[in-house]
Amino acid sequence: MSKQPAKTSRRRFIQAAAASSTFSIVPPHVLGGPNHVAPSDTFGAALIGAGGRGPGTFRDLSGKHGLNIRKVAECDVKWVGKCDNKTRYTDFRRILERKDIDIVAIATPPHWHALISIAAMQAGKDVVCEKPMTRFIAEGRAVVEASKRYGRVFQIGTYGRFGMASKKENREVRKIMLGGFARGREVRYVHRGGLKVGMWSGPINVAPKPVPEWLDWDLYCGPSPLKPFQPPRFGGMHRGYWDYDGGGLGDMGQHKFDPLSYLFGKDVTAPVEVEASAPPAHPEATGMWGWVKLKYADGFELVIESGEWGKPTGLPSKRIRRDDLNEQEKQKLDQRPDPEPLIGFGEAVKTRKQAGGHAEAAHRTVCIMHLANLAIRTGRKIRFDPETEQVVGDELANRLVNQPMRAPWHL
Amino acid sequence: MADKTNIDSFLDQVPPLNKSGKVVGPAWEKMEPILKGILAQGADAITGLIDRLNEVDDGRDYPARYLLHGLAVYLGRSDQGKSRGVYQRALLAALASDWPESVREFLVRQIQVAGGAEAVPELARSLGSQKLRGPAIAALVAIGGTEAVGVLRKALENGGASDDRLALVQALGSFGDAGAAPALRSAAAGDDEPVADLALWALAEMGDAGAVGLAIKAAEATGSRRTRATDACLLLAERLAAAGKKEPAGRLYRHLRQSRTDPKENYVREAAERGLAAIG
Q: What is this structure's pTM?
């Protein structure tokens, strides 16, 4: 897609602007005073996308995140004719207009995650967003920029990295990887199974049906193409259609790879080469695949095997530990700072610091799935530039990376 | 010349769906000879596949759709430029014919994947169809280049219904086409609020210094329009600052710093202060 080349320089500008104070300031409303809430006070919150995982995501605000929450409103496109527009809505935009909401929990299908997250942060809300963070790569970058621009807290709805970071040996691996000690060594992680590839492949022998009267189908489709209503496109099986998600890889990948992004120090970069073994993809439905190899600039290789199609790679995992380093490298390693502790969403909201599952980390993790799916869909090796976030030397593959949104929606 | 039997032989090589109606294969290594076989027979074979498309996409014509899409993706390989032209011309010929709009929509979506500048005139004609307009605009954005931008700009200048203009403004915004700035400024100052809001975003996206006054005026709105206009101000300021245009960027930031006095808008004032600090 032809986009302005100025994006990278603007990104640098946003980074410079954010570096001065975002996530390190304590804004007045946290300190108290007229019209402000103190950290111990109650936060108004709303749930956007009330089906499936939604109620659990919302409960986590007061449970896992330890916040005093007052539920103000909830929203779902399947409530046409059942809303009072005070506590229940069909249109998330009406919820974001409310000044009594500080936090939104987003649990819609993934094609809405980025746009609602961005709109919420534009309206001054902090965000917990279910996985996967996005449907394509440019969406994630836009969420990162919105988080920095407005100084809002973003936390992706997966928490495996917190468990990973709690163990000293894992923090040491991260320190080794961030120190660049993988270069020149064979370091590989092979992930096998658990990605529900067959389960979340979309069926295609489905006749279109009239749109149910309780469903706002146009708003459901939103930025994705407005297609005829086929029941599996709504309610769980949406994961199996490219218009809304990326199959089992999209659905489960953020859970599986987010801890690995932390462990191997890949929170601010992306793979540079990706290849896959898979059948050609259907234009509408996600399908089967065997394996994907993703290589980073430092040589680290992430191999993903579905265990559901084709033959496995036969490649073993090859870890790196302190004992693998020579004495000089150990000395250099000891001079490096330890990884900073991860901060939970609740603490981040109160202190205005960056949450452990922040937008940049979540974006870089979901890029693993997007790039893997791109290699699966194209059947050719993909070369990717982690800085510009564009495929190198393959203009047609880039068209599948960032797809135009249906008007009026835009990043 | 591809006859009916040839086409059947290609379709028959596509494995049936599994019992759940899902695609299971074949591997690319097995698909490639099928696609090469189709391409060896030229445009007639591609047209023969298009002939097998049904008006309703309910899976019954799955092999034909699968092969046509497989070709679109396969032809993105760097060594397939010549065949890509043959494929594209076959799709464009079908697009210009009297196929049902649902079939033509499928073809436009394949052009979005594999099409080039040669497709622009036919896509421009497709803008006249309500059903094809959205996919055609998406294809023009994907193809890019001066011809595609020119078609979108001309269509916006010709006016049209609000929904049509929204789609065109959105597309031009994603291009960052400076040549569209006059038409977008006019739209941003107009009475059609959704179009005006989107046009302001498009101008901000392209870093149009001539839109600073419009943005500041729009930022006085209330409700969700205020939020959108505020974002346009910040986006425009970032664009201008990144281009070294500190004065207009500073004007936008200062306006937000001074006007966002409600405690609930502290976060905007702080964003403006960060922007001002960054431009020095």
A: 0.95
